[in-house]
Amino acid sequence: MKSTTEFQQFKREQRKIVMVTAYDYPGARYAEAAGADTILVGDSLGMVVLGYDSTVPVTVDDMVHHAKAARRGAPATCIVVDMPFGSYHAGLESTTRCAVDMMQRSGADALKVEGAGEVIDVIRRLTHVGIPVVAHLGLTPQSAAVLGGYKVQGRDTAAAQQIMNDALACEAAGACALVLECVPQQLATRISAQLAIPTIGIGAGPGTDGQVLVFHDLLGYGSHRVPKFVQQFADIGTPLQAGLAAYADAVRSGAFPAEAHTYNIDDSVLERIYG
Ligand code: KIV
Ligand code: NA
């Protein structure tokens, strides 16, 4: 899809939305060529690409830098970019300035923010400004320290009710889609039925209107600590490691570079210099 206006059309037509993360030019090219409906430049960037152990250190400039690369790789795909930790919590004025800056510099089609509460006002304001906003409820990694780690959310009645209410509030505030992360499938299915906007699940079972996975997790590309909800659809890490090891061996043995990789001049050229 080209823009987030198609999100609701997909839902009306009961077509599953395929979302995948990407953080650079080649990743986004592969995602677009594979026919992903939408790309998320997630702040999971911090963990799978930058090697931090949470999303907290990721900055606005990090997100913009990677989103621009993803945009160049996927010029025809709707790209959603995460607002990083802390960038939408210092009041609506600074949030608006930050969001406008991210939109103008990154080439994003939409921004994503985590949580409800005061974030509902953020969704309303940014939507009013003309920025499509994707909401994100359930496990919200930017607040993992407050949630007590990375664990399933909405398991008891009160917590499930809270997530349902928050989902309705996100929709009422103008969110164009809702990511549901790590919630029981029964709850995700209910929320998906209640909302007119599509839900995009990750660890939320098959009842959502779409699915999202982290690029590195689904391809076995350098990510360790892969959660239960991930299916690994390919293992690119093993051939990648083998390829690098073969290169190292070939350099050390002198097998690389071969004649085929080498440029030549006539011997007479250097004879004129060196005799
Ligand atoms: O940053 C990310 O990759 C995300 C998805 C897991 C939804 O927010
Ligand atoms: Na994220």
Automatic annotation (TrEMBL):
> What GO terms fall under cellular component here?
cytoplasm
Function summary: Catalyzes the reversible reaction in which hydroxymethyl group from 5,10-methylenetetrahydrofolate is transferred onto alpha-ketoisovalerate to form ketopantoate.
- Catalytic reaction(s) noted: (6R)-5,10-methylene-5,6,7,8-tetrahydrofolate + 3-methyl-2-oxobutanoate + H2O = 2-dehydropantoate + (6S)-5,6,7,8-tetrahydrofolate
UniProt protein name:
3-methyl-2-oxobutanoate hydroxymethyltransferase
Name the active site residues: E181
BP terms from Gene Ontology = methylation; pantothenate biosynthetic process
| Its EC number(s) | 2.1.2.11
Has UniProt tagged this entry with the keyword Lyase?
no
Q: How is the cofactor bound?
A: Binds 1 Mg(2+) ion per subunit.
State the coiled-coil residue ranges: none
- HAMAP family linked: PanB
UniProtKB keywords? Cytoplasm, Magnesium, Metal-binding, Methyltransferase, Pantothenate biosynthesis, Transferase
Positions contributing to Mg(2+) binding = D43, D82, E114
Q: Name one Pfam family in it.
A: Pantoate_transf
Oligomeric and partner information:
Homodecamer; pentamer of dimers.
Q: Which family does it belong to?
A: Belongs to the PanB family.
Q: Which GO terms describe its molecular function?
A: 3-methyl-2-oxobutanoate hydroxymethyltransferase activity; magnesium ion binding; methyltransferase activity
* Lineage of origin: Bacteria, Pseudomonadati, Pseudomonadota, Betaproteobacteria, Burkholderiales
Q: According to the lineage, what is the superkingdom?
A: Bacteria
Q: Where does 3-methyl-2-oxobutanoate bind?
A: D43, S44, D82, K112
Name the species this protein comes from. Answer: Comamonas antarctica
Entry cofactors: Mg(2+)
